[in-house]
Design a protein that fits this description.
The structure holds 2 protein chains of 2 kinds. Chain A is α/β, with parallel strands linked by helices. A 5-stranded mixed beta sheet of chain A has the order 2-1-3-4-5, covered by helices on one side. In chain A, helix 7 packs across helix 14 and helix 10 packs parallel to helix 12. The termini of chain A are far apart. Chain B is of the alpha+beta class. Chain B is built from 8 helices and 4 strands. Chain B is elongated, with a radius of gyration of 18 Å. The two termini of chain B are 23 Å apart. The chains are: A alpha/beta, B alpha+beta. The complex binds flavin mononucleotide, iron/sulfur cluster (SF4) and FE2/S2 (inorganic) cluster (FES). The site of FE2/S2 (inorganic) cluster has 12 residues of chain B, from helix 6. Iron/sulfur cluster binds next to helix 18 and helix 20 of chain A.
Chain lengths: 571, 179
């Protein structure tokens, strides 16, 4: 690829990429695309790909075989999309390698195997196959970040550009001032997708106002929570979208220094983002004097290795600097003193990925999605025994009930809904009778819940509320960085009390001690980890109090999970 | 966390040195510090752990003290400062896997197979990293990854026992490389 040196060269490149893209879908050949992402690899997608390669090499089917990213339907992996000449692309799920010959044979005979079909990627039904949009998992979704997920090759900047990529960046670069970019993001009322929901535009504005130099813009792709996997899917399936958002952020802050900090466990996400950065350099969308605009930008990718606390803003910055990732007291805030003690704007992966559409379509368009206070779409992952496990993108404001029972398909056969844990390790659960609450940044809070990063955990009656609380607080205990006393000593104390209860040695007073100790940990801890660590426990205790009482008075664990016999035997 | 400095080993530092020479060329001291963690990850990928010689080579190459390197190696849960046993199991302990019963697997490993705080089973077969996060393959919960390659899904106590028996009998090669 030759470096593009001005806007006209980019337009010419785009036109060529588009022509090539259109040709791909128009010709007399088959187009077969295999979704390759961590979740599909785990289910054998690479074997499926190799098998297809082998069969196609025999030459009976003139076909283009491609790799695409994850489309969010983890439950149907490995998936492949097949477009025979003259038909729309048909998406098949559950195509493990053993099914490849049978599927191809059927298709050549013109049998469409509806039992394996998710839908056709077209607005209308075709040959009796419904459109994807009619699938229960997709019906209530609104896909903006995931618009091209599973459609384009994540390792091809050309395909990203063919579907309109980097158009927003060019618009910002050539038609808008940095202030106008910030104004647009402010008008969109985009709130941070990493957990706290702070308005991104306001953060960018304060970053702009701080006079110190240089400045840094950092993407938080750490994603170390135990309940969410959306950022890595986004990076795996459309890394250029995140990079474009970061570029726009750097332009808004008028700085040439961008970073992405990616959790070391997310190997494929890391590799694909790195690849995207390399391609952007090769094409001249990163580097000095981008497209002759005078604006320069350089992006560095950094990673950590298994410490949840490194997702916290100030800890993340120490981690990038090669220090142990431990938070510090605030003020100063990061926008005043962050990375290398310079003004730093840090946003979540998904926050950055939301920016290109805002610049393309305008802040007010974005603000019309979702609710008034929680605008736009949100990636949601639902874990637990639900039918359609995966990543969904919905407009904020959808009800929790609809999210669980429509989008994610409700409980799998044989499982009964007991509750849904919200906010990961940072908030409490909701019960069945509370599910009509809208899923947005503010509505869950009065119920002790939280949107957080959008990872929810449905649990059934085989899960004990005490044991689950122990798991969630145990996570925070293990991940406590140990810098401040209330969290370092308080979280183990809570775990100890919970273990006492689990092992049948609990007393009714223990429940009061839990409330009392929690209050201290919440009020006195230095950073967000400690300040919310007791929340899941308090939530479980409030929602499932009778279960806690059963443990301490009757020495009974109704789920049969806790090793409660120990305490009974000791009596 | 306790740090046992292991005895000297005889690791071939050449491949690590080559990677450092080729890809780790910081422009200044600031960038050198930013590269410590990923250089350690390279070492772990090569050797399955970060041997002391490798840590020294990294410190020397990047112009930082060995204390800086060990400060990070002991901070992050993913780094091993002891060699792994014959097989390596990445066992997910994320919320989906917990809900599906991963806790019983951890208990089993501790109680029946003597898994210690380093994740090593007492018979020398297996090193387990109980991963306090989500492996991102929740549809397979409880999930694990063996020898950095094959994913295992829907693990229960019997399945885990059977797996360990197979590994013990040597029926399963570790062909996943060091990392
Ligand atoms: C213990 C802890 C862990 C966190 N982990 C993450 C994370 O993995 N990813 C993330 O984007 N934000 C995480 N956050 C929130 C960040 O501190 C910060 O608020 C966020 O990255 C800002 O981006 P946003 O405004 O776009 O959400 C974490 C916060 C705490 C206290
Ligand atoms: S609250 Fe916990 S994680 Fe946060 S600084 Fe204190 S000890 Fe570290
Ligand atoms: S929680 Fe285990 S794979 Fe997600």
């Amino acid at each position: 690829m030759a470096v593009l040196t001005d806007r006209a060269a980019f337009e010419a490149f785009t036109a060529a990429a588009r022509a090539k893209w259109d040709e791909l879908w128009a010709g007399d050949h088959w187009v077969i695309s295999v979704g390759i992402s961590e979740c599909s690899i785990a289910k054998g997608a690479l074997e499926t790909y190799k098998h297809l390669e082998l069969v196609l090499s025999e030459g009976h089917i003139p076909a283009v075989l491609r790799r695409v990213g994850c489309a969010g339907w983890c439950f149907a992996e490995p998936f492949i999309e097949i477009k025979p000449p003259g038909s729309p692309p048909i998406v098949y799920g559950w195509v493990t390698t053993d099914r490849v010959p049978e599927l191809l044979d059927s298709l050549r005979r013109g049998e469409w195997r509806p039992e394996w079909v998710l839908g056709v990627r077209a607005p209308e039904a075709w040959q009796g196959i419904p459109p994807l949009q009619a699938h229960p998992f997709l019906r209530a979704q609104r896909r903006i970040l995931f618009e091209h997920a599973g459609v384009i090759d994540p390792e091809s900047i050309e395909e990203y550009i063919a579907v309109g990529g980097y158009r927003a960046f060019l618009r910002a670069l050539f038609e808008m001032t940095p202030d106008e970019v910030v104004a647009e993001v402010k008008a969109s009322n985009l709130r941070g997708r990493g957990g706290a929901g702070f308005p991104a535009g306001i953060k960018w504005e304060s970053g702009r106002r701080t006079p110190a130099w240089p400045k840094y813009v950092v993407v938080n792709s750490h994603e170390g929570e135990p309940n969410v996997f959306k950022d890595r899917r986004l990076l795996e399936t459309n890394p250029h979208l995140v990079l474009e958002g970061l570029l726009i952020g750097c332009y808004a802050l008028e700085t040439p220094y961008g970073y992405n900090y990616i959790g070391g466990e997310h190997a494929l996400a890391l590799r694909r983002f790195q690849r995207a950065v390399e391609q952007a350099y090769e094409l001249g969308l990163l580097g000095d004097d981008i497209l002759g605009s005078g604006f320069s930008c350089h992006v560095r990718v950094r990673t950590g290795g298994g410490a949840y606390i490194c997702g916290e803003g100030s800890a993340l910055m120490y981690a990038i600097m090669g220090q142990r990732g431990q938070p510090r007291t605030k003020p100063p805030r990061s926008v005043e003193e962050g990375l290398w003690r310079r003004p730093t704007v840090l946003n979540n992966t998904e926050t950055f990925a939301s920016v290109p559409a805002i610049i393309r379509n305008g802040g007010s368009w974005y603000a019309s999605l979702g609710t008034k206070e929680s605008t736009g779409t949100k990636l949601i992952t639902m874990q637990g025994p639900v039918r359609y496990l995966g990543v969904a993108e919905v407009e904020l404001g959808i009800s929790m009930r609809s999210l669980i029972f429509d989008v994610f398909g409700g409980m799998r056969p044989g499982y009964r809904f007991k509750g849904v844990q919200t906010g990961g390790v940072s908030a409490g659960p909701l019960r069945e009778d509370e599910l009509d609450v809208p899923v947005d940044f503010d509505s869950l809070t009065p119920l002790g819940g939280m949107l957080g990063s959008g990872g929810f955990v449905v649990f059934d009656e085989s899960v004990c509320a005490v044991d689950f609380a122990r798991y969630l607080v145990g996570f925070s205990r293990y991940e406590s960085c140990g810098k401040c006393t209330p969290c370092r000593l308080g979280t183990p104390a809570l775990v100890e009390i919970l273990d006492r209860i689990r092992y049948g040695y609990g007393r009714p007073e223990d429940l009061d001690i839990i409330r009392y100790a929690s209050k201290h940990i919440i009020e006195l801890s230095l950073c967000g980890l400690g300040q919310v660590a007791p929340m899941p426990l308090l939530g479980m205790l409030e929602r499932f109090q009778e279960e806690f009482l059963e443990h301490v008075t009757e020495r009974r664990c109704r789920a049969g999970v806790c090793p409660i016999e120990a305490g009974i035997a000791a009596r | 966390m306790e740090l046992k400095v292991p005895r000297r080993t005889t690791v071939d530092l050449e491949p690590l040195r080559r990677i450092l020479e080729e890809r780790y060329r910081p422009r200044d001291h600031q960038e050198a510090q930013e590269l410590i963690v990923s250089a350690c990850q390279e070492a772990q990928r090569l050797y399955g752990w970060v041997p002391p010689e490798a840590a020294e080579a990294i410190a020397e190459h990047l112009g930082v003290t060995i204390n800086r390197v060990y400060g990070l190696l002991t901070f992050y849960a993913d780094f091993r400062t002891r060699p792994p046993q014959r097989h390596f199991l990445w066992l997910c302990y994320g919320a989906a896997c917990y809900v599906a019963g991963a806790g019983r697997l951890v208990e089993l490993l501790r109680e029946e197979y003597g898994m210690d705080e380093h994740g090593d089973t007492s018979d020398g077969t297996l090193s387990v990293h109980v991963f306090n996060g989500c492996l991102g393959v929740c549809d397979l919960a409880p999930a694990a990854q063996l020898d950095h390659r094959a994913y295992l899904g829907g693990l229960n106590v019997e399945g885990m026992r059977a797996l360990i028996e197979r590994l013990r009998s040597g029926a399963e090669e570790n062909n996943g490389g060091a990392h």
